[in-house]
Write the structure tokens for this entry.
Amino acid sequence: MTPAAAARPREQAPPGRAGEGGRAPAVRTGRVRFPLVLAGLAVLLLLSLTAGLAIGSVHVPPGEVWGIVGRALGADWSAPTWSRAREHIVLDVRAPRVLLGAVTGAGLAVVGTALQALVRNPLAEPYLLGVSSGASLGAVAVIVFGFSLFGAVSLSVAAFAGALVTLLLVYTTARSGGRITPLRLVLSGVAFASVLTALLDLLLLTADRGNEARTVLAWTLGGLGGVQWGTLWLPAAALLLGTAVLLVQARPLNLLLAGEESATTMGLDVARFRARMFVLLSLVTGVLVAAAGPIGFVGLILPHTVRLFVGSDHRRVLPTAALAGAVFLVWADIAARTVAAPMEIPVGVLTALCGGPFFLWLMRRDARRRGDRGAA
Amino acid sequence: MSATDLAVERLTLTAGAHRLVREVSLTARPGEVVGLVGPNGSGKSSLLRAVYRVLRPQSGQVLVDGADAWALPVRELARTTAAVVQEPGGDFDMTVREVVAMGRTPHKRLLDGDTADDARLIARSLEAVDAVGLAERPFTQLSGGERQRVLIARALTQQPSLLVMDEPTNHLDIRHQLEVLGLLRRLPATVLVALHDLNLAAYHCDRLYVLCGGEVTASGPPAEVLTAEMLAAVYGVAGEVAVHPRTGAPQVTYLPAQPGS
């Protein structure tokens, strides 16, 4: 304490809130803590990834995991003390899956954060609004009918299209007279999701290729298994693109928190901005769903939890939610693999188990807040 | 920063088949405080919404320093025109300081950070509305009047040369009403403000426009506009207007309705 105080004698000067000197620290408190939050989460993510690679039917000690990963990355710090089989398990079986989990978790959290601002509804989330179902239907149609117009990325393209169409339909249906109530939006999302899921079931039942139907069924529950190194680049690219664009657009996203009219008076062309962002969010959601299946509630749980710690400014929420989402889904997947081993639970089932109650809590909290405000 | 010259020309606004405002023209010269008065549903808010570029006119024009406000990019207009609107905020927690800081957005490029100048401006705006003590509070936890003051501070932070305000004194206690309206007079900006309270309008505005049924029925300096005839015709109330000996402004006294009249 003392050396620091001696080094900055001027900042002690006027008591109370006189002048800039007194006020500046108050402005910065959030920012000083923010890099710490990010660094902490980054470390946590690193540990989570390690755990993801270590835990499973064959346990690989963390030290060995680091050795294997280090060698694969070209660092020659130790002679291999592990078997080929273990190297194979860590690098070829677990690593793509763990990374896909991290990418998907980060992506869904970021999409949820932005979606909540864009539709001005804290309950918005790709899964709840039927966007994930739309993406699923697109992707499944590709699997069942065997389209491959776009080669290896057909699945993602179809999922993107399904997501975008659904999002636009849900949004326009819920909006009337320029206003959109939270309740109507969620109801409209639920209605579209049921129709889309019914269509999906119909597709599966009428598809005569039994094996594919089973594959697809497993996929629609949300699962990270079966991913390979060769297919990982697409979701990773979607995540990076989506997060980068949204970070650049953090100020406009913040404006929307103030309301649509207010945002307009502060220089945001709301309709155009929203349309562009809908395309972006559908793209990210579509690619993620194509890779990992529809995994619900990640986009709900993480953004709200993160806001409790860093506030609502998107410049802080987006990166924090991305890291926290990655950590969350890596652990959800570890649980999915181990809880009922040797059987695997689809990770989407686990996130829904956590997410449902969270949704209810959020709904009640917001109702209480509105009640308070009405009374005030 | 110089004040803006505002001209609304033969503006007609509709919502579906319903006509809100018909052929309304008004002007506000640089630095003037122009008041918009009239009963509920007379079209005050609609007119203001057309000026701050939310409600697209059916016909007519809004000219800001001679330029068609509806032809300008939204962001460019927002650098000259700020508004305090009647709109419920979101459910997201932001601190008062963050809300006020939003006012800087139209002056920022995409990746610009917040500067020391921004911080000073924000502090000054908060001071102007007597909200320095609220800076670190969550916006959602404020009372109606406190929120209103914060929204005014946000508009000030935008450094507008035209300020459009829809009932800025709503929810404010009498002291803050007087402070906010007094502030408008001192701003280096043109102000277009809708007000309910005729006495406040009389004292604080250079000129008034009276709207009734979507049309301008009277306009001019408060002393010319505020008359017993106008009160009867536009509001359907009986009243007397006298010049207040201390303020020199017209003072409206409402008379209870006569039984049988």
Notes: The longest strand of chain B covers residues 18-28. The mean pLDDT of chain B is 91. Chain B touches chain A through 49 residues (CB under 8 Å). Chain B is about 30% helix and 30% strand.
